[in-house]
Amino acid sequence: MAELKLYDTLTREKRPFAPLDPARGVRMYVCGPTVYDFAHIGNARPVIVFDVLFRLLRHLYGADHVTYVRNITDVDDKINKRAFERWTHERPLTAEIRALTDQTLAQFHADVDALGCLRPSHEPRATDFVCRPEPSALDMIKIIERLIARGHAYVEQGHVLFDVPSMPAYGKLARRSLDEMVAGARVDVAPYKRDPMDFVLWKPSDPEKEPGWESPWGFGRPGWHIECSAMSGALLGEVFDIHGGGIDLVFPHHENEIAQTCCAFGTERMANFWMHNGFLMVEGEKMSKSLGNFITIRELLASDRFGGQNWVGDVLRLAMLKTHYRQPIDWTAEGLNESTNTLDDWFRLAAPDQPAEPSPAVIGALADDLNTPKMIAELHALRNRIRVPQQGAEAEELGRNLAFLGFDRARFAAWQKSREHAVLQALGGIDETEIERLIAARLAARKARNFAESDRIRDELVAKGIALMDAKDPATGELTTTWKVAR
């Protein structure tokens, strides 16, 4: 088995990975979506990155020995605001919030399914872990009570706050001092705080506008950070193997998770490895609504807003994997076109209907801290060894690798078909039947050594925007021709 090495943000080193408790298998937690609107393409990056890691871990340790938890944040100020804006008073506000989060979660699932991502082992909703009736069941209120009892949290004006100075190691993940964090963060100024860096564990709720739960500190709701501590602790244990998310979550979210988790459980660490994917930019600029380049996964899949056309999830997936996950990525239409051509080439040569089984070279690349650029280079090298399209050991191996990595031939082919039909209509209405007739006539002309006629037909097709690809069967010497819309 290939030795898996992963980069740990906490220790700033790449080191060998082994499960903390082999009997429990590999346990991984990744911060999931806040469900109030469509997920944007930046949200797609951790979903795809950690899906590849999930697939790799399942291959190395067995599917039954990997537990992947990706949470759903369904209690949040943005959710409350959006639900209140659309509330008609025909049902309770809590029902409106649930309807909004259910609808948004369904949209998220449809989008990430289209990206070829597996569903995680567990997908807990934060609202299910605020207060659980079983005395032994871990929840947010119980963790907060522990923090207060241990002297790491205090109650002021209906709020419960984590006492940051009570944890000397605070800031270790971000590697910044308290003064640096205060200077670089948007710190809420509140009279009930003992220290500017103290953060909210529990806050009061307005029952007319906000959801809430009864607690020892009054009717209220949890802060964002405590949610992940409760869900990961309940489903994976006090200390687990891997915690993942975007680099933007290092501070304050993950830093605060570590603080409250370690102080509540009396542990030195929360996760053995912290993994973070890099930022995403769009056409060289930071993605933002003010710049007009904020793009959702749904818009990429179903509209022509980016690059003048819609895209299939397999193209988005490959475009995301061409850059190493820890590096920043520039999302461009040119990159999507390049990924389209690569997949078109791979699927044209790969043998269809292969089981999802990766080759050692692909596993070796992924085992080196998910080195997806090297993995793609290995696939290109394998592709170059194929002599007959869709035939032979190399073609079968390429097909197995594509299936393992989550690429779907049928989904890609259906998208290509609809795309080509639209382009053909725009080019003057030439249809597939006429293209095949002209190709057959060209092959007949070549066989009769009438190369002038053969070239004339080729030029006619090229003028109509159709590219021809000739291949010769090495066994029979017969020439075959396939076509695609030139881009």
TrEMBL record:
Any idea which positions bind Zn(2+)?
A: 31, 228, 253, 257
Catalysed transformations (reactions): tRNA(Cys) + L-cysteine + ATP = L-cysteinyl-tRNA(Cys) + AMP + diphosphate
Q: Which InterPro entries match?
A: Cys-tRNA-ligase, Cys-tRNA/MSH_ligase, Rossmann-like_a/b/a_fold, tRNA-synt_1_cat_dom, tRNAsynth_Ia_anticodon-bd
- Start and end residues of each tRNA synthetases class I catalytic domain: 24-340
User: Could you say which cofactors this protein requires?
Assistant: Zn(2+)
EC class:
ligase
Extent of motif 'KMSKS' region: 286-290
State a single Gene Ontology molecular function.
ATP binding
**Where is the signal peptide, in residue numbers?**
none
The main place the protein resides is cytoplasm
EC number(s) on file = 6.1.1.16
| Span(s) of short sequence motif 'HIGH' region | 33-43
Residues crossing the lipid bilayer are none
Q: Does the keyword Cytoplasm apply?
A: yes
Output the GO biological process annotations, alphabetical, semicolon-separated: cysteinyl-tRNA aminoacylation
Where on the tree of life does the source sit, at the highest rank?
Bacteria
| UniProt keyword Transit peptide present | no
- Binding residues for ATP, per the UniProt record? 289
Q: Where in the cell is it found?
A: Cytoplasm
Q: Where is it found, in Gene Ontology cellular component terms? A: cytosol
Question: What's the record's note on cofactor binding?
Answer: Binds 1 zinc ion per subunit.
Assigned keywords, A-Z: Aminoacyl-tRNA synthetase, ATP-binding, Cytoplasm, Ligase, Metal-binding, Nucleotide-binding, Protein biosynthesis, Zinc
Subunit info here reads: Monomer.
Q: Which family does it belong to?
A: Belongs to the class-I aminoacyl-tRNA synthetase family.
Q: What is this protein called?
A: Cysteine--tRNA ligase
- Which organism does this sequence originate in? Blastochloris tepida
